[in-house]
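Subject: design request, 189 residues
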């Protein structure tokens, strides 16, 4: 286990020790560390914050942590990146059921879910906004797909993006059995 993984595990343990208010507490903690009001943390802000939690890293180690967690390449961490880094990895059982749900949606089998794939699996005809004439079924399907898409919202959801979405859901479900049952029911697997 390298320094970044060790740091992540220590930080995750700190958050879990805060109980039910853990995520909200982390969000408040993040906002407090964001001294310049940029809605993101630079290396110095994160380093000071982790030191408050007893996780003292030198500048080179902290830069490594930031590089690993900085998904958009901005050189800073926004709250979403910070929370994503704290999520525990999914178990094999959870990954398997997420992969099965993705495969059900990916009707074309090309590894990417699009609105065309959704048409065969999910109907938006009875959506209230379609029924009122405010949206088309295409718009409903795209809105549904955007839930799983990365921040780019390109209308294409990869397995990695789908897993990332469900990694966040998984973090709030206590047992594998509950998560698998939820996914099986939701996606009719």
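Subject: RE: design request

Done. Sequence follows.
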């Amino acid at each position: 286990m390298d320094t970044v993984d060790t740091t992540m595990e220590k930080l995750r343990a700190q958050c879990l020790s805060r109980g039910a208010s853990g995520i909200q507490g982390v969000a408040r903690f993040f906002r407090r560390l964001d001294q310049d009001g940029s809605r993101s943390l630079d290396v110095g802000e994160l380093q000071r914050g982790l030191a408050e939690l007893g996780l003292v890293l030198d500048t080179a180690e902290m830069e490594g942590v930031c590089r690993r967690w900085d998904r958009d390449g901005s050189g800073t961490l926004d709250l979403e990146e910070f929370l994503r880094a704290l999520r525990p990895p999914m178990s094999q059982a959870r990954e398997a059921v997420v992969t099965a749900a993705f495969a059900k949606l990916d009707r074309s089998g090309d590894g990417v879910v699009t609105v065309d794939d959704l048409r065969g699996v999910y109907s938006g005809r009875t959506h209230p906004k379609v029924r009122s004439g405010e949206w088309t079924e295409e718009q409903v399907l795209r809105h549904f797909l955007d839930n799983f898409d990365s921040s780019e919202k390109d209308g294409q959801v990869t397995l990695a993006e789908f897993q990332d979405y469900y990694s966040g859901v998984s973090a709030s479900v206590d047992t594998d059995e509950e998560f698998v049952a939820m996914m099986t029911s939701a996606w009719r697997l």
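The two ends are 36 Å apart (CA to CA).
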